[in-house]
Design goal:
Radius of gyration: 17 Å
Order of helices and strands: EEHEHHEHEHEHEHEH
Distance between the termini: 18 Å
Strand content: 15-25%
Strand order of the largest sheet: 5-4-3-6-7-8
């Protein structure tokens, strides 16, 4: 561990990922989102492996879901975004794609939260914006957030950047993440590598770090 002014500054994945001070964010592993991911099977399989390792190590785990408001409650930015994504001609043509109780909004059955875990609903791309996540993590003394899920180019990159801005060490478990557009997903990973705030790793490496010595 690097040190300055009495502060420990992690150099490695092992130093960053103390299970007592690490949280796992499982980002938008929802049926309707995963249906848009070309490598759905690989992402789900790796995500299950990561979640099982986190549970075994006592890592606090939070599941994120993207939900949408009734169109009558959407603001201009929400209507504009969904107009673009739905390729609608007018805001009046937008429909709410992820109502909280809809089948497509639910988490994939392979990843069922336990009663020791939480599900956070959001209408933003960053998991931290407009949610209670940051408060909960700080209250538990969390310093590192590991992120898996979908989609890299839509919500994971903003979440990782926001985590760094909030003072966390972000860890991206790359093979447990997926992208709707593979080239855009690779650009997101390249941008995160270039910025240098995040540690990028694999499921195997993350599991090894969490395993009892």
């Amino acid at each position: 561990m690097d040190e300055r002014y009495g502060l420990g500054v992690p150099r490695s994945l092992t130093e960053a990922c103390d299970p007592r001070r690490t949280a796992l964010l499982v980002y938008d592993m929802q049926i309707g989102v995963l249906n848009q991911i070309g490598e759905r099977g690989r992402v789900v399989r790796r995500a299950v492996e990561v979640v099982e390792a986190a549970r075994a190590a006592g890592v606090r785990t939070y599941f994120l879901r993207h939900v949408t408001l009734p169109t009558q409650l959407m603001g201009a930015s929400q209507l504009r975004m969904w107009r673009a994504w739905q390729r609608a001609e007018r805001a009046a043509d937008v429909v709410s794609p992820f109502p909280p109780d809809a089948a497509q909004t639910q988490l994939t059955p392979e990843l069922r939260p336990t009663d020791r875990e939480a599900v956070i609903d959001k209408i933003t791309m960053s998991a931290f914006e407009g949610t209670w996540l940051d408060i909960a993590l700080r209250d538990c003394g969390i310093t590192t957030v590991a992120v898996i899920g979908v989609a890299l180019e839509i919500g994971i990159e903003p979440t990782v950047r926001h985590a760094a801005d909030l003072g966390y060490v972000p860890v991206v478990i790359t093979d447990a993440c997926g992208a709707g557009d593979p080239e855009a997903g690779e650009r997101s990973l390249a941008a995160l590598r270039f910025a240098g705030d995040a540690l990028l790793t694999t499921t195997e490496e993350f599991r090894a770090v969490l395993a009892p010595q």
